[in-house]
Amino acid sequence: MFFSSSPIPAYLLFVNLYLFFIMYLDWQQAKKDGWRIPEWQMLTAGLLGGGVAGLLAMSMFQHKRERKRFVIIFQLGTIIGLILLGTYLGWIK
User: Fold this and answer.
1) What is the rounded CA–CA span in Å between residue 87 and residue 21?
2) Domain residues for 83?
3) Residue 1 placed within a domain
4) 2 pLDDT band (50/70/90 cuts)?
5) Which band of pLDDT confidence, cut at 50, 70 and 90, is reported for residue 62?
6) Residues 8, 87: contact at Cβ < 8 Å?
């Protein structure tokens, strides 16, 4: 049921996995002063519905927690993701 003909569940899964992965990579690179993921990539993925993964990664890796714009964008992205999911499940019409 979760993966029907609608692209919404697959989209939300993809954008959240993508954001979690790039947050992990950026955290690893920050520890060794290596190349970094551009902030705009993380913020864009968060705003496009990946906020849950962004907040989870911030908590798990203790990464970007002090950056207010990350917290705000990831919270907005969580709301956007919930609206998309609610629309898909028929909770929002």
Assistant:
1) 26
2) 8-89
3) no
4) low
5) confident
6) yes
Q: What is the pLDDT of residues 28-42, one digit of tens each?
A: 999 999 999 999 999
Q: Which two tokens stand for residue 67?
A: 């950056």
Quickly state the pLDDT bin for 92 (edges 50, 70, 90). Answer: confident
Q: How far apart are alpha carbons 2 and 92 in whole angstroms?
A: 17
Q: Count structural domains, the chain.
A: 1
Q: What is the pLDDT of residue 89?
A: 87
Q: Where are the alpha helices (DSSP H) in the chain?
A: 8-31, 39-45, 51-61, 68-89
User: Could you tell me if residue 60 is inside a domain?
Assistant: yes
Task: Tell me which residue of 15, 8, 9 sits closest to 54, measured CA to CA.
Answer: 15
Distances (CA, A) of 36 to 14, 20, 32, 51, 55: 21, 15, 10, 20, 19
**Distance between CA 53 and CA 33 in Å, rounded?**
24
85 assigned to some structural domain: yes
